[in-house]
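Please go through the sequence and fold tokens given here and tell me how the chain folds. Record follows.
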Amino acid sequence: MFAAIAHPGARQGLLHEEDAAVPSSLILHIAHDGAHSYRARMFDERDQVGTATCHSRIDEAIRWYGEHAPVAGIQAFRIWYGGWCAGSFSLAEMEQGADGIAERLLVLSMVAR
């Protein structure tokens, strides 16, 4: 089932290395910034984790996070685009199925307009 809520909070924060419990999943929020420009940010519920990355396509952003897992211990991401969530995906699913996930997000965002 797909969920629709407002974009994750804009407050920025970092996961501290001394935190005892690192979440096994984070939110990956992808925003359209202009022609062939997408900004991807990670959130742990409300706070931004790390710095944003820029990509030329949605599937490229998904695949990059699946391949690089920028935070140690992360096993999955809940992926958002345009106010819509495509669901939770493991790093392997993101790496192998980025095209399908991106297509699902685009369809959801078009239908909602």
Summary: The chain is about 25% helix and 35% strand. Residues 98-111 form the longest helix (14 residues). Residues 41 and 51 are 7 Å apart (CA to CA).
